[in-house]
Structures are given as structure tokens and as C-alpha cells.
Amino acid sequence: MEIRHTTEQDREVFVDTIHAAFAMHPPTPAEDGGGVFWAAYEMDRNLLATAEDGRAVGTAGAYSFELTLPGGAIVPTSGVTAVGVLPSHRRRGALTALMREQLTSFRERGECLAVLLAAEAVIYRRFGYGPATYTARLTVQRHRGALAVPRARGAAEAAAPGSVEVVRRSRCVEALEEVYDRYRRAQPGAVSRPHRWWALRAGQPPVAEAPRYIALHRDAEGVADGYASYAVDSGVMTVDEIITTDDAVHTALVRFLIGHDLVERVVLKHVPTDHPLRWRLEDFRGGEVTGDTDGLWVRLLDVPRALTSRGWFADGELVLDVDDPFLGERDRWLLTVRDGKAECVATDREPDLSLDISDLGAIYLGGTEPSRLVRAGHVLAHRPEAAAVADTLFRADRPPLCLHWF
Length: 406
Fold this sequence. Notes:
The chain is an alpha+beta fold. It folds into 3 domains: about 1-110, Gcn5-related N-acetyltransferase (GNAT) (Aminopeptidase); about 135-295, Aminopeptidase (3-Layer(aba) Sandwich), CATH 3.40.630.30; about 305-395, Nonspecific Lipid-transfer Protein, Chain A. It is about 25% helix and about 30% strand. The strands form 3 sheets. A 7-stranded mixed β-sheet has the order 1-2-3-4-5-14-6, sandwiched between helices. It starts with a strand and ends in a 12-residue tail after the last helix.
């Protein structure tokens, strides 16, 4: 078996192979090659596994993204995608070979992090990825969806000035791109949506050109500062995403959605598990939470660089004994945090925590408490207070979230 990098000439065989791996049939792209999820593939970053007779049997791809870290730092990262092996060639080492070659290429690019969305949760921990962000589905029955009157002093004055207008997705793409870009720069765990995604209509709505309406919020000066992408079918409104950095704008958009005529219930597909939306309802049980699931998975490629790249919100130190069995590496690091900055150096001191590289990925963005992994038996705490210290150190300025599908 051979693993090789692809070129643009390999696009058709790459697309055919990944679809066959998932037993899917690819739709026909538009004349410009857009309108399909693979339109944004970066063929110089993809890998193809071929059998001895030259037939393609497996794929692994990567996008060039930027990832926002706690504290606001933005770093380049690889977004892993299109990982699959033909059913006829599974359990022969193709996936392992693809993932090993891919991680090597990421390191050669000088990146300290890689991310992915896992189709199956049992696959990627063994390659060093850990679940780092979480979302849930929130279904609100319209007749129980009244929003509560703010009771906190000053809350009433915090209502978002401006207005909401309904726009066809095709008529406001530029505004959507601008709003999302401002949002992702402020949201830990968010990845960029490069312009070519919007231009090629690649991915899922509202980037893709599937029929959608947009509830676009504009501030008092007329500048777009938030949006919701939605569709209505048989009395059910499905909301792809709500994008804004302002809680008051978020509330204004939710109020518009719940107040929509000819709708019996509103399904918000991706809501952060700690989001205050349920508390905004007059009837707390008016919103039903289902589908609590993982989002972005994170893989550290260079532990010291990754840990010193993010922001920190408490002082302290930890000795981390980090095992990376897939790459055959085990190192011990002294993490010292002072005034929001971290230093990470090799040490021979006794460890405070022993953990797998995938568990370090899970806690890296602050969305998974280290103490939870200690209680689950994933992480070993060598002294009683170590887990609490780790919880304090790794917490983020706001919960991480990734809404971009790739």
C-alpha cells in the first residue's frame, strides 16, 4: 500500500473514493464546480491510499483554518476531513498509515494543533484527538416560548437597539461572511470560514446554497451584527445557527424566531450546553434539550507551543506527564502561568497529572474539566489537589464552541 499526496488531477478519484467509503452518491456540482461540500477541498493537502494495483482505497484531507483560542489568540490549524477507507480494504492498516502521514505533514507545516469533527467517536482518540467542544439541540414549543421579562437591574436597558429583517440567503452572503468573521475571532473554539467556502457555496447552510431564509439583525447604525439561518417545513422551524457576539442581539433573534407565524415548534440545532437561552424562557420547561453531543476534537502536535499560545486566567503551575502512544512519544512538561502568559519547559520533576495526548486535547480549550477526566479514570492525579488546580488553570474566558461544519 502507498500513501501519496494528491494534486488537482486527483480530485475526481478522491471524491469518488470518499463517497464510496461512506456508501454515498455524489450530486452533480454546478458549472463553476461549486454548490457541493467538497468544492473547497485543498487538493495539495489531501492524501490518497492506493493498493498494489494502483487503485485508490482510502482518503484523508485537510483544510487550512485559523482557530481562536481562549484569550483571543488566533493560530493556524489543520481541519481534518474526508477520512475514509473502502469497505473492501478496512482493517489492513490503511487508516493508520493515512493518519500517521497526515500528522507528519502537519508538523512539517509548523502547526501545533489539528482539529476535526468526528463521524464516529470511537475512532479518533487512538490518533490523539480529544473532544473539546459540545453542543445540544434545543426544541422550543412556540406556545410555551414566551421570553421572560428581565428582572436584573439594568437588564431592560440592555435590549439590543436596531432591527431584524428577513432576507434570502442568496442576497446577503457578504453580510453573513462579515458577521461570522467577527464572531469567530471572539469565540474560543471557532474556526475560520475562508472566503472561498462562501464563493463556492461549500459545506452546509448558510454557506451552502440550500434554500434558507436569514434573520439579519442590524444595529442602530444599520450595520449587520448578527444573523440566524432557518427553514420552515410543516410547522417546524429548523435553525442552522445563530451567529452574534452580543447576548442582547441573540435574544432579539430568538424572539423573532419564536414569534414566527405558521410555526408550531422551533428547533435550534446547535446550542452550547451552558447557554442561558432556557433561562430566558418564561416557562423553563418550554425548551427541551436533546442530542447533547461533541463538536470540535483537538489534537496537540507541539505541546509547549500549544500551551503557550492560548491565554490563561489564573496563576499556578502543573507538571504534566503526557503520553502520545500513536507517535511513540512521552514527555514531562512544567507548565507555569503568570499574568495570563504560560511557560512550558521539559522537566524531571514528579508529575501532578499523567494523561494521554487526547485528554490534553480535550481540556485544552477549557470546555472539558480535567477533574471530570480524573473521575472518569482517563487522567491520573498524583496529589489530591492537582485536579482542582488543573480545573482553575485550564478554564477559559468563555466556553469554547465550533459551529462551522467541515
